[in-house]
């Protein structure tokens, strides 16, 4: 079984045996193009070639024949938009979830255009990440492209169009567009009217278990696969991450911190939030995932590395270890709470729980006694604090979770894992395998191809885990600081907007 995860910064392919045992992993990175603070795009053809290369590499590493591959199943990042012309050529780059050019339209949709009612039907909070706001922006700011567009699609739809010559979109990716009615599983007519498009300009809606066959022979050969290899359309990376860490039972919450982050839990019917703070996306016909995404996860740690840790990078090179390992060792010198230094990690605006593209990062509580190691630890704590505020919003809908299953790149750091247990004040279980979305994709593939009657088979495939329990004295410190963390971000809401407007004016002036 091959699971493919099309992510924001790379595509990964993982080869599993049918019992879930790991065989091989391959991946290809690609850039996120950010010429201005508002733009976040990618070249779709680069990502397509990354898919081809990753599958080929994992086949070579595994040393298997095409006839041994039962299926290839897909996970993908959400919220992307690519405009395609009538000849199947891309008119735009892939506009990613991180692109903020539609922020003014998101604000108008929320305040003036019945946005909350639309959210309650579609499950996607109103924010520039949402494809509906991107289409509103394109219709007014890129009219020439908008009028030439035959189809508006996501990156996964682009991949499947190239491989099979058909435009299809699974219910999971579609439920993250702000344009699919959660209850009817059809495109929402009011949403289409607001976006200014026709239903024919969107792909055919299919279940996440939909199986495609008739793979383009040339691309099959490039991937070392047979043209008859079944391809499972699959779902979005978030919901498959829940599945991949066995967080699909009531009361089990998955926390993921990769480039960005999210907190999610599975429910048995669509559910939205009267306050509009959480999303609701499809996994299968009877399983839905609710939760909240945060913009600022591991990318904040990378920012610390790049901007504050030149000497530590050199130390890591000399020792032949990761710079992140050096930085976490430095953070361990500092007691929980960073001696009262709080960091709000809103360097790229924020989605949940603020849903404010104007939010900005800050250190609060700095004194002359604080040193670099305090700043490093407070950054790690700030990411977890923010994740916990999302969990608090979820608890209003589904109650306090019984256990946290954590995954993502952050899980490689023991101190960061323990920090989550202490701040959440709950047991945190971390699978040894970090590629939860790829594992989730192949579990869904087993279900889609009739090889398993239930998704619960994942519990036999997750493998070993690390377990972290909260340290009582650490949890007590964090409980004192969390209300302060929350109050500051709420009090600064108007100032976020003012400073963001100033920054945009500087950008327009060429500074």
CA-based shape: globular
Number of helices: 18
What is the CA-CA span between the terminal residues? 50 Å
Report Rg: 22 Å
Uncertain residue ranges:
none
**Main sheet overview:** 7 strands, mixed
Could you tell me the number of beta strands? 23
Mean pLDDT: 95
Structural class from helices and strands? alpha+beta
Lateral arrangement of strands in the main beta sheet: 17-18-16-15-21-22-23
Helix content: 40-55%
How would you describe what is shown here?
Strands 17-18-16-15-21-22-23 form a seven-stranded mixed beta sheet, sandwiched between helices. The protein has a six-stranded mixed beta sheet with strand order 3-2-1-5-14-13, sandwiched between helices. Strands 4-7 form a two-stranded antiparallel sheet. The N and C termini lie far apart (about 50 Å). The protein has about 500 residues and is an alpha+beta fold. Helix content is about 40%, strand content about 20%.
Compact overview of the structure:
The chain is α+β, with helices and mostly antiparallel strands and 511 residues long. The protein contains 18 helices and 23 strands.
Task: Please describe the topology of this protein.
Layout (H helix, E strand, L loop, with lengths): L1 E5 L3 E7 L5 E8 L11 E2 L1 H19 L9 E5 L5 E3 L9 E2 L7 H10 L2 H8 L8 H11 L1 H6 L2 E3 L1 H10 L3 E3 H4 L5 E2 L4 E2 L1 H7 L8 E3 L4 E2 L4 H6 L8 E6 H8 L7 E6 L3 E7 L11 E6 L2 E8 L3 H11 L1 H10 L3 H9 L10 E3 L17 E3 L7 H27 L4 E5 L6 H11 L3 E4 L4 H13 L16 E4 L3 H20 L1 H16 L3
Parallel strand pairs: 1-5, 5-14, 9-12, 15-21, 21-22
Antiparallel strand pairs: 1-2, 2-3, 4-7, 6-8, 10-11, 13-14, 15-16, 16-18, 17-18, 19-20, 22-23
Helix pairs in contact: 1-6, 2-4, 4-8, 10-16, 11-14, 12-13, 13-14, 14-15, 15-17
């Amino acid at each position: 079984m091959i699971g493919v995860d099309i992510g924001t910064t790379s595509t990964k392919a993982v080869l599993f045996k049918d019992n879930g045992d790991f065989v091989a992993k391959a991946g290809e990175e690609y850039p996120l193009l950010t010429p201005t603070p508002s733009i976040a795009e990618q070249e779709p053809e680069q990502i397509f070639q990354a898919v081809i290369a990753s599958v080929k590499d994992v086949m070579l590493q595994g040393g298997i024949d095409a006839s041994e591959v039962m299926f290839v199943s897909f996970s993908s990042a959400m919220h992307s938009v690519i405009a395609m012309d009538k000849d199947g050529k891309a008119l735009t780059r892939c506009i990613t979830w991180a692109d903020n050019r539609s922020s003014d339209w998101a604000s108008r949709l929320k305040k003036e255009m019945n946005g909350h009612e639309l959210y309650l039907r579609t499950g996607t909070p109103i924010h520039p990440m949402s494809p509906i706001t991107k289409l509103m922006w394109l219709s007014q700011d890129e009219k020439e492209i908008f009028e030439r567009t035959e189809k508006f699609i996501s990156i996964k739809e682009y991949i499947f169009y190239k491989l099979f010559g058909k435009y299809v979109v699974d219910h999971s990716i579609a439920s993250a567009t702000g344009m699919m009615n959660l209850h009817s599983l059809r495109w929402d007519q009011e949403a289409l009217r607001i976006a200014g498009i026709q239903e024919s300009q969107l792909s055919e809606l299919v279940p996440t278990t939909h199986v495609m066959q008739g793979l383009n022979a040339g691309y099959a050969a490039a991937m070392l696969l047979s043209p008859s290899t079944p391809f499972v359309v699959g779902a979005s990376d978030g919901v498959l991450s829940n599945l991949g860490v066995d967080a699909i039972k009531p009361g089990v919450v998955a926390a993921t911190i990769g480039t960005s982050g999210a907190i999610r839990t599975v429910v048995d019917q669509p559910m939205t939030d009267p306050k509009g703070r959480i999303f609701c996306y499809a996994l299968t016909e009877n399983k839905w995932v609710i939760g909240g995404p945060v913009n600022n996860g591991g990318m904040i740690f990378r920012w610390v590395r790049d901007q504050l840790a030149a000497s530590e990078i050199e130390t890591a090179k000399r020792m032949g270890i990761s710079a992140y390992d050096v930085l976490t060792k430095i953070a361990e010198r500092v007691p929980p709470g960073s001696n009262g230094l709080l960091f709000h990690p809103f360097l790229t605006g924020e989605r949940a729980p603020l849903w404010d593209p104007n939010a900005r990062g800050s250190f609060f509580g700095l004194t002359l006694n604080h040193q670099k190691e305090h700043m490093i630890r407070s950054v790690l704590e700030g990411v977890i604090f923010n994740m916990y505020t999302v969990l608090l919003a979820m608890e209003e809908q589904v109650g306090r979770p019984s256990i946290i299953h954590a995954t993502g790149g952050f899980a490689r750091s023991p101190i960061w894992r323990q920090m989550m247990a202490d701040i959440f004040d709950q047991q945190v279980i971390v699978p040894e395998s970090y590629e939860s979305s790829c594992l989730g994709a192949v579990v869904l593939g087993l279900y889609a191809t009739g090889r398993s009657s239930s998704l619960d088979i994942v519990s036999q495939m997750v493998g070993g885990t690390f377990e972290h329990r909260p340290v009582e004295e650490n949890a007590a410190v964090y409980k004192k600081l969390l209300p302060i963390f929350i109050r500051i971000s709420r009090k600064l809401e108007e100032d976020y907007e003012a400073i963001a407007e100033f920054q945009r004016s500087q950008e327009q002036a060429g500074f």
